[in-house]
Amino acid sequence: MEKPITTNHRFRERLVVGITGASGAAYGVRLLEALHALDVETHLVISEPGQVTLALEMECTPEDLEPWVARRYASNDFAAAIASGSFATRGMIIAPCSIRTLSAIAHSHTDDLISRAADVTLKEGRPLLLMVRETPLHLGHLRLMVQATELGAIIFPPVPAFYTHPRTVEDLVQQTVGRILSRMGFANTLYTPWNPDPETD
Question: Residue-wise over 173-194: b if at least 16 C-beta within 10 A, else e?
């Protein structure tokens, strides 16, 4: 007997977020806060180096972030829902994204849950946004970005805009997070779009 098709479920937007060991943990934390405010069902993975950076830069633990997420997974949990393409999501954001993680994604090398979830995102044709945080960049880094882009990833370094006259680091972080959310299709008011002629609004 076939299973009945039901249509009475409440669907929410569902997004995967990865935080790696690159400097810039504040971007990942602010992103989680913003997604929670937007009522997005967020599934979080933090790499082991990411946990170290989170403690050093933000003085917080992965457990401190749990109020903002629907589920947090261990970085070696390959049985996690997000390791399967059958678990439907809107896509994935890795913020910040280390060069190590970028390299794993570019080479389809899935040795932890972040790279596995990213590979799933790409193979299912969903948007994967990588906030690559490194400078200066040598040729190997640039080639990895090209490879990831050819696979379908969005390379989105946290490059600040100054036309909004930011006054604090928080202003810069919030602006970038707002632009990332917009790029992923989430309307938000965290950043001010460029408009040289406000009278045309």
Answer: bbbbbbbbbeebebebebbeee
